[in-house]
Amino acid sequence: MNKSVTKPAWLKGFQQDYDSVFVEPWSAYTGAIMLVIIMAILMGSGLFWGVFGGIKLWGDYLNNAIGLGSVLGIKEQLESPLVHRISIMNIALLLGAFSAALLSRQFHINRPPPLEYVWAIVGGTLMGIGATLAGGCTTGGFFVPLTFSSASGWAMWAGLLVGAIAGLKLLLWTMENITWGCTPPAYRPATLKKWYPLFGLLVVIFIIYWAIRWWTSGEDIKYVRALLVVAGFGIGFVLHRSRFCLSRVFREPFMTAEGEMTKALMLAVAMGAPIGAAFIT
After folding, report:
1. For the CA atoms of the chain, what is the radius of gyration?
2. What pTM does this model have?
3. Lower CB count within 10 Å: N or C terminus of the chain?
4. Collapsing DSSP states into helix, strand and coil, what is residue 155?
5. Terminal CA-to-CA distance of the chain, rounded, Å?
6. Rounded distance, CA 54 to CA 229, Å?
7. Residue 80 — very low, low, confident or very high, per pLDDT cuts 50/70/90?
8. What is the number of other CB atoms lying within 10 angstroms of the CB of residue 196?
9. Phi, psi (rounded to 5 degrees) for 26
10. pLDDT tens digits, one per residue of 226-267
11. Which of 137, 146, 149, 133 minimizes the C-alpha distance to 93?
C-alpha cells in the first residue's frame, strides 16, 4: 500500500516562493520598473542599453566569412564580440532569458508552421533595414532615447506606429487568404524538464563567475564590461519573466485592443525620463 509523503512546511513554503518568482509570470509593469532601474544603473556608469550594434557586429563577421566584406565595405579587422560592449550585453541578455526559461521549466525548442519561417525572413530583413536607417533598433533607437527626452525617439515612434499598422493589416490578410504552411509540426515534449532548474542555476553561476573574473582582472576594459555582463543578464531575465516586448506595445492596441504592454511602456518612460534628464543636466 502506497503512503503519500507529506512535504515539510518549510519545503512547501520554499516551493511557493520559488514558483512566485521563477515560474509565475511577472506583470508587464514590474518588468518596466525593473528595466528602468537597470537602465539607470547603466546611465550612472556612463553606459546605455543597446542591441543593434552587437547584432551588426555579428553580421559583419558573417559577411567577412562568406566573402562579402569587401563588397559591403566592412573592415577586415573587427572588434572581438567579447570586447564590443553591445555584443557582450546581447550575449548576456540571451543567457539571462535562457536561464529564466530553464528555472521556470518553460524552455522548449518549438518548431513553427512553415509560413512563419517566411514571415521570419521577411520581418527580420525589414527590421534590419529599418534599424540600419534609423541608426538603432526599438531599444537603442526608440526606448532609450525616450528616457533622455530625445526627439529621435519620438520620430522613431511615428515610424514604428505606421509600420505596426501596415504589418498588422498584411498579417490579417494572410490569415484570411493563405492556408499554406499554417499547420504546426507535431509537438515533442521535453525529456529533461525536471533538470531544467539545475541547468538554469548553472547558467547563473557562470554569469557570476564571468562578471567577478572581469571585475577583478585589473584591466580597465574588462572592469567596465563586467557591469555590462550583469546588466545584460538582468535585462534578459526580466524580459523573459515579464514578457515585456516593445513590438507588442505597438501591436496590441490595434490587434487585441489590450493595452497592458503599452501602459507599461508609458510607465517606464514616465519613470525613466526624469532620471535621464538628471544625468544630462
Report:
1. 21
2. 0.91
3. N
4. helix
5. 74
6. 13
7. very high
8. 19
9. -80, 155
10. 999 999 999 999 999 999 999 999 988 888 888 899 999 999
11. 137
| Domain count along the chain | 1
Report if residue 189 sits inside a domain. Answer: yes
Residue 251 contacts residue 164 (beta carbons within 8 Å): yes
Does residue 19 belong to any structural domain of this protein?
no
Q: What is the extent of the structural domain holding 205?
A: 27-67+79-280
Residue with cell 550594434: 53
**What is the rounded distance in angstroms from the CA atom of residue 216 to the CA atom of residue 222?**
9
Query: 130 is written with which cell numbers?
Result: 529599418
The C-alpha atoms of residue 172 and residue 156 are separated, in whole angstroms, by: 24
Q: Is residue 265 part of a domain?
A: yes
- What are the grid coordinates assigned to 118, written together? 517566411
Residue 14 resides in a domain: no
Burial of 18 (0-12, 13-18, 19+ CB in 10 A): middle
pLDDT digits (tens, 9 = 90+) for 112-142: 899 999 999 999 999 999 998 888 899 999 9
Which amino acid would we find at residue 227? Answer: L
Please provide residue 236's backbone torsions phi and psi, each rounded to the nearest 5 degrees.
Answer: -60, -40
Residue 76 DSSP class: S
